[in-house]
Amino acid sequence: MDAGHRIATSALLNLIEQAGLDVATLAEGLDEADLRRSRLTRAELLRHLRVLAGSAIAVPPSARQDMPELDWEGWRLLSLRLQAGAGEDLDDAIWFAIHSVVPATLLWLRVYRQSQPQLFVMSPD
What we know:
Elements: H1 3-27, H2 32-37, H3 39-58, H4 61-66, H5 72-81, H6 88-115
Helix pairs in contact: 1-3, 1-6, 3-5, 3-6, 5-6
């Protein structure tokens, strides 16, 4: 992978991690009824999840192969569900993401940051 692709991939991984942390912060202590009642929180969670999903989809296949435990296909499918209009299907997708996909993604990113730190460094070297 050339320097430009490495930097772009690192930027995507860092964006995924930051959006995931933002989701975790917003969702902390939130129960499902609160999610469905709170238009502002739900909208902000959705915004971060769409950034995260879009970034995950944009990670090049070569980098995905370096991190096989991350559910890349799950993010692609979740991205499609997050495009739904407001309603129960969208709320279910958000709930699933904040309690399943995002925590698993953050866990594996932490593991990869320790075992393969070069994937997260945005420098041409």
